[in-house]
């Protein structure tokens, strides 16, 4: 019975996050109300507060699930013997596409992951309000940052195993740097399309990877 309750809670949580994201993608974070989300997810407003203290938490929950699906796909390809460079290109291509398609949501994700938290101009009210973008505790953004890092690191480890990266490279730290570079580029790049994002990222990655590559190895061009 307890397991059933946990499964029901998780299913309801996922339904809320998915419904919220669909509304955010269509209308934006600020224009979407708590009532809009509750109606789309077939729950009461009370249940929204029970599962998520803010709209940004809903956005991050859905984002984390999407990133995990990309990581599972990357791991499956790596385990099947795919070229890590091709897997890397696929991961970056998918992230670039999402970044352009949902550019109006990148700011909320980026601020949370980079540690700034949504800017409200004042402290959040004592009672949770989904129409008020409550500040995130550092742990909220950190969880998403770790999820993104866990997406990138397996590809770096595969490159390291092939001798393309120096054996002493800290792949966890390098993953975090690459994730930050991705988010900063999306936040400040003013890109027009996926190809534009990838060109910008390639310049940033070349700089970050320069000291990590094994002698004689060069950064290969990404998708173009």
TrEMBL record:
Residues 33-52 bind DNA. It holds the Pfam family TetR_N. Keywords: DNA-binding, Transcription, Transcription regulation. Coiled coil: none annotated. PROSITE patterns: HTH_TETR_1 (PS01081), HTH_TETR_2 (PS50977). Gene3D superfamilies: Tetracycline Repressor, domain 2. The keyword Transcription applies. Residues 10-70 form the HTH tetR-type domain. This is Helix-turn-helix domain containing protein.
């Amino acid at each position: 019975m307890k397991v059933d309750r946990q499964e029901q809670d998780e299913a309801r949580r996922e339904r809320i996050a998915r419904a919220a994201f669909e509304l955010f993608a269509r209308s934006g974070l600020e224009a979407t109300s708590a009532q809009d989300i509750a109606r789309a997810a077939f729950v009461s407003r009370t249940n929204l507060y029970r599962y998520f203290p803010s709209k940004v938490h809903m956005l991050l929950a859905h984002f984390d699930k999407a990133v995990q699906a990309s990581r599972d796909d990357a791991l499956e390809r790596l385990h099947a013997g795919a070229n890590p460079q091709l897997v890397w290109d696929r991961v970056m291509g998918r992230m670039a596409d999402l970044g352009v398609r949902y550019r109006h949501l990148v700011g909320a994700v980026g601020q949370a992951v980079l540690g700034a938290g949504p800017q409200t101009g004042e402290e959040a009210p004592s009672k949770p309000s989904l129409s008020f973008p409550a500040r995130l505790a550092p742990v909220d953004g950190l969880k998403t940052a770790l999820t993104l890092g866990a997406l990138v690191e397996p590809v770096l480890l595969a490159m390291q195993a092939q001798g393309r990266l120096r054996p002493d490279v800290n792949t966890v730290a390098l993953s975090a740097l690459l994730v930050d570079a991705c988010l900063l580029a999306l936040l400040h790049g003013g890109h027009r399309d996926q190809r534009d994002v990838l060109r910008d990222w390639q310049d940033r990655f070349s700089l970050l990877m320069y000291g990590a590559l094994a002698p004689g190895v060069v950064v290969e061009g990404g998708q173009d």
